[in-house]
Amino acid sequence: MREPSDRSSEAEEQEGTGTPDGFQRLWTPHRMAYIKGENKPTGPGEGDGCPFCEIPKGADEDGLVIRRGASVFAVLNLYPYNTGHLMVCPYRHVADYSELDDDETLELARFTQRAIGALRKASGAHGFNVGMNLGTVAGAGIAAHLHQHVVPRWGGDTNFMPVIGRTKVLPQLLRDTRALLAEAWPED
């Protein structure tokens, strides 16, 4: 027969209150902001809280901006799929790729090339996923402001954590990743 204290300990284990139960837990409290929709625009307009319009107004380190150009900037994703996941965004608040002018289109393409070069240099990435989700139905989290994702990939980077546990393990702080990529960014 168990002592009463054993029963309360067992109940705590079952409730997940922090008592050891044989499982290791990976806490990702930063994801709660994403789950709750914090920092999401309140509407489609430029003045509706768009983070891609606000980020360039601050310091690079605070906004996780890696590099600025004349028409576009590169910024780390706050909710990355992999370490180094960045986005190239036009400064102008446009929703669709077809709305970019020629200068914006060219600079977005060149920044994407440079982002790939910086990620290879800084992290030795084996490959990349590059693309845009145009519209909410296409998976855009912030559909009102165009942004191109550049996601570095490595052999074996998809394992049980994202597949079974629906959790991504990121071994580096975003500020540290930003500093490495800014340093590795190819010169114009």
* Total discrete domains: 1
State the end-to-end distance: 74 Å
Structural class: alpha+beta
Classify the beta-strand content into a percent band. 5-15%
Order of helices and strands: HHHHEEEHEEHH
Query: Mean of residue pLDDT?
Result: 81
Q: Biggest β-sheet, characterized?
A: 5 strands, antiparallel
Topology-level CATH name = HIT family, subunit A
Helix tally equals 7
CATH superfamily: HIT-like
Gyration radius (Cα, Å) is 20 Å
CATH class: Alpha Beta
Strand segment tally: 5
> What CATH architecture would you give?
2-Layer Sandwich
Q: Helical proportion?
A: 25-40%
Can you tell me the overall shape? globular
Unreliable spans are: 1-15
Side by side, the strands of the main sheet go 1-2-3-5-4
What does this molecule look like?
By secondary structure, the protein is of the alpha+beta class. The protein has one domain (26-184): HIT family, subunit A (2-Layer Sandwich). It is 34% helix and 13% strand. It has helices spanning 4-15, 31-36, 51-54, 60-63, 102-123, 160-163, 174-184; strands at residues 65-68, 72-76, 86-90, 127-131, 148-153. A 5-stranded antiparallel β-sheet has the order 1-2-3-5-4. Helix 5 crosses helix 7 (174-184). The longest helix is centred in the middle third of the chain and has 22 residues, at 102-123. Mean pLDDT is 81; it is low at 1-15.
